[in-house]
Amino acid sequence: MPSMAQGHGGVRNSTENSNDSYARTQNMLQQRKSLPIASVEKQLADEVRKNGILIIVGETGSGKTTQLPQFLFQAGFCRDGKVIGITQPRRVAAVTVAKRVAEESRVQLGQRVGCSIRFDDRTSAATKIKYMTDGLLLREALLYPYLSRYSVDIVYEAHERTVHTYVLLGLLKKVQKARSKSGHDHSIADNKKTSNGLPSDNENGAQFNGIFKQRQGGKLPPLKLIIMSASLDARVFSEYFSGARTVHIQGRQFPVDILYTLYPETDYLDAALITIFQIHLEEGHGDILVFLTGQEEIESVERLVQERLQQLPEPIRKLITVPIFSSLPSEQQMRVFAPAAAGFRKVILATNIAETSVTIPGIKYVIDPGFVKARSYDPSKGMESLNVVPISKAQALQRSGRAGREGPGKCFRLYPESEFEKLEDSTTPEIKRCNLSNVILQLKALGVDDIIGFDFLEKPSRASIIKSLEQLFLLGALTDDCKLSDPVGQQMSRLPLDPIYSKALIVASQFNCLEEMLITVAMLSVESIFYAPREKLEEARTAMKCFASPEGDHLTLINVYRTSNEFLEKRKMEITKEKNEKLLRKWCKENFINSRSLRQARDVHSQIRGHAEQMGLCVSSCGDDMLQFRRCLAASFFLNAALRQPEGTYRALASGQVVQIHPSSVLFRAKPECIIFNELVQTNNKYIRNITRIDYLWLTELAPQFYTMQN
DNA sequence: GAGCACTGC
C-alpha cells in the first residue's frame, strides 16, 4: 500500500474567529501549499481516475477533508455539469468544512462550493463541490435513485459506522453497479426497474412514486466512490467493495504519552478525581479533558472537585471546571472554548460529545476511565436501553488523540494495560443496536424489497429486521407480501420522522386534528424541551406547571409550542427577525425551556407541515375538542398502550413488560388507569416517557386489528 | 424521582 504524508490542521470547530479576511486567505493559501498532501495531489487524482472505488485511511479532520475535493475539481471531475458530493455524519462539520473550502477557493459559500443540511441549503446551480450530511444524500436518493448529478461521492468518517453510513454504502454500491451497466446497455432507460431493482432518475424532479419515466439520454457516467476512514481496519471496507484499493495517508498527530494504572480501579470517579489533582499539582500547564458517561457523573465530579479545591492552599486553587454534554444549553456549552483566566487551569468534564463532535482547543491531558453510556436495542421487547459499558480500543485511541492536537500530550487511562488489551477493537456498529423500522421503510422506498438479503457492511440480526417489518406492517406501511403500501407506506417514507410519527400524521388528518399532531410530533422529535438545572430545580418545576395539562405530556407540549408562538406573534410586527430570535431565547430561559430544542421543533414543524400539505393531507384543527385529539393519539400510538397495575407500575399491552412512568412526565403522580406512551427506555428502571391518559375502550374501538375484547 | 452521542430534500 502506498503511503502519503499529510498535514496537520483541524477545521472542525464551529467557533472560528473571523480575522482580517485578506490576511486570512493569504495565510490559508500558504498553509495549503505547505500541507504534505499537496505533494500527492496528482497521485490522488490518478488513483481516483484509475479506480472506481478508493479507500483512503487517514487521520480525520485534517487536510484531506478540505483538500481532496478541490484536487478532484481541478482534475476535471466536475465536467459536464457534474457535482462532487461529500457526505459525513454531522451537520456542524459539513457546514464548517464547506465554509473553509469556500474561503480557500475564494468563492462565496453557495457558489462553486456549497453545503446542504436539513433546514439549511446553501447550494445553487453553480455548486460543484457539495458538502452534506449522509442522511441528506439518502433522502435525495429517494427522488433521484441514480444520484445522476454526482460524478464522485466521498464518504467521510466511515469508521464511525453510523446507520446512515451503512445504508448509504449499500446504496452507493448498488448505484455504482447500475450506472456502470448503463454505459453498456440501455436496459436502464426502460420503463421499469432494472435488474438492480433501481428505478431511473426522474430528471425533472417530479415526485418519484413507482412509475418510472424513461431517462433522457440513456447513458450515465460512472460514479466514483471514495471511502474515508480514520481507523486502521480498512480491510473491512476493502472486502466489502470486493478488494478495493486502499491508500494510506499518514497523519501528523503530536505524540501522546499513554499511562495506565497498575491495578483495576473500583471507583473510576474517585480515580478521575485523584488524577485531576495529580495533574494539577505535578504537571506543566495545559488543560485537562475528562471523559465521563453522563450528566449525573459530570455534575457529581464537578461538585467533588470544588469541595477538594477548598482544602487546598489559596495559591494553588487555580482550577476551574467546565461541563459539557449534549443537553446543556448552547450558551453554556460554549464555555469550553473560552480560555481560562491567566494562571488558571481548565478541567473539562465531558461525555463522548468531546470524542468527535466538539474539538476543544488547549487540551494537553486526557483522563479516560474507559467507559461510555451506550444505547442498545432489544428487538424482542422493542425496548432501548442505556447502559454504561467499556469503550472499544478505537474509542480509547480517539480519546487519547484529543491530547495531541496542538502539541505533545498525556493520556491517563484509569485501567491497566492488560484491560486495554481485552477491549473490543471497535464499537459495535449502531445498526446492530437500534430499531430498524426507519431504515427498512427507507430501503423499501428506494426499491430494495429484500431487506434480509441487502448488502449491509455488517448485517443486523434477523430477529431485529423481522421485528421492524412486523411493526411497519402493523402501522399499515407494508402490504401482506411485505411491499410498501400505497398510499400509506409511500407517504410515510417521504416524511423525515419515525415511522410511528409519520403514521400519526396520516391518522390525524382523518381525525381532523392534524394541526395538533404536527406540533406534537415536531416536539416529540427533538431532545427534551424542558431544561431543569439542578440548582434551580424548584423554579423550573414551577415554570413547567404553567404549561402542564392534566391529560398528559402531549397536550403539555402543545401548550408550550402555542404559548411560544403567541409570544412571537405579538411581537412579529414590531422588530427584526434577529431580535425576535433573541426575545424567544430570553422567553425560553425564563420558562426553563431548552431554546435549541424549541428552535429545532419549530423547524421540524414547518418542514413536516409542508410535506403534509404537499401530500394533500387535510391540515385542520380540532379546536378545543381535546377528547378528539386524545382519541387520535390512541388510534396512532395503540402499539404503545399501557395499563396501571395495583402496585402503581404499568403493564405495556403489546409486550407485556412491566414499566414505570418517567419522573419527568406530568402524569408521574396522577397515574391514570390507561395511557399511551412514546418512548420506552431502560436506564435504572424501565421508563416510559411522553404519556397521555386515554380510555381503554378506545383501543378496541380504534385498533380492533390489534386489540380484541379479550385482551 | 431522572436525561450517551449523532442524524433526516
Summarize the structure.
With 711 residues, the protein is an alpha/beta fold.
Describe the structure.
Its EC number is 3.6.4.13. Residues 182-193 have a biased composition (Basic and acidic residues). The structure is a single chain. The chain has 711 residues and is of the alpha/beta class. The chain has 4 domains: 41-249, 3-Layer(aba) Sandwich (Rossmann fold), CATH 3.40.50.300; 256-428, P-loop containing nucleotide triphosphate hydrolases (Rossmann fold); 495-623, Four Helix Bundle (Hemerythrin (Met), subunit A) (Up-down Bundle), CATH 1.20.120.1080; 637-711, no CATH class. The chain has 23 helices and 22 strands. The strands form 3 sheets. It has a 9-stranded mixed sheet with strand order 1-9-2-8-7-3-6-4-5, with helices on both faces. A hairpin with a 3-residue loop joins strand 21 and strand 22 (686-693). The longest helix is centred in the N-terminal third of the chain and has 20 residues, at 163-182. The chain is globular. It binds one DNA strand of 9 nucleotides through residues 89-91, 116-119, 121, 133-136, 138-140, 142-143, 160, 162-164, 293-296, 325-327, 351-353, 355-357, 372-375, 386-388, 430, 438, 442, 494-497, 525, 527-528, 532, 604, 607, 611, 662-664, 668, 681, 683-685, 687, 689.
The CATH topology label of the largest domain is Rossmann fold
Proportion of residues in helical segments? 25-40%
Strand count: 22
**CA-CA gap between termini:** 63 Å
Structural class call reads alpha/beta
Please tell me the CATH architecture of the largest domain by its name: 3-Layer(aba) Sandwich
Mean pLDDT: 86
Number of domains: 4
**Number of helices, where a helix is a run of at least 4 consecutive DSSP H or I residues:** 23
What is the CATH homologous superfamily assignment of the largest domain?
P-loop containing nucleotide triphosphate hydrolases
- Main beta sheet, described? 9 strands, mixed
